[in-house]
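During the no-cost extension, the postdoctoral fellow (Dr. R.K.) reprocessed legacy sequence entries with the updated structure-token encoder. One reprocessed record is reproduced below for audit purposes.
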Amino acid sequence: MVPIGERALLWCEKYLHEVRPQFDLTGHDPAFFLTSLGEAFTPNRMTQLVRGHINAAEIGKSGSCHLFRHSCATLMLENGADIRYIQQLLGHAKLDTTQIYTQVSIRQLKQIHTLTHPAKMGAEAQGEDVVEAETSPMYDGGN
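Re-encoded structure tokens follow.
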């Protein structure tokens, strides 16, 4: 079973009906993805294609399909998905494996801290200016 969004499903259907028939030289190859030679993708072919597109995009990251997998899981978690659903999506047998995605980014941590810290709430209520922790002379970098 492959979870797929409605938009992605529409693109898959478009490929299946409009593009794939041009590659299926025998007319009955059961593979979903076919090369321009009419052969089923090898297990590593999608990774090779994705890696090529990531490198061409010059985004400063290397990777392949796993980069998308990791990004999807991280963004779902940051947007409130329960980690058990992410575990099922990724097919992890143990929750421990999925918990690597619970590492909150420093950007998100700073944002949440700025928005919700009790000192800020108290200072705003009293009309005081709020000083960011890292600019305070008392801040020791979290040590």
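The two ends are 46 Å apart (CA to CA). The first helix runs from residue 6 to 23. The remaining legacy entries will be reprocessed before the final report is submitted.
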